[in-house]
What does this fold into?
Amino acid sequence: MELIQYLRTLKPAEKVAFADRVRELEPKASLGHLRNVASSFRECAPKLAIAIERASEGSVTRRELVKDWRFLWPEYADQYDVSQGAAAEVAHV
It folds into this structure.
């Protein structure tokens, strides 16, 4: 699920709680910054992507947040490709 979709599923108080969970792992993150990342106004830093993935309990993954995720986390490539049914995508990389 994309971050913007995830945020839309949350009530206002849940958004604040989510931002607080992200901030526990990435202290510089704010709800405003998360909205900017979700709207593609800002790129998502790798450390923030991990924090979002953990705070969303895997609903939003680093793969959806970071363009070059395969180069940063190659150990996850097979896991994502199998679970996402994207084996063909790997062949073209």
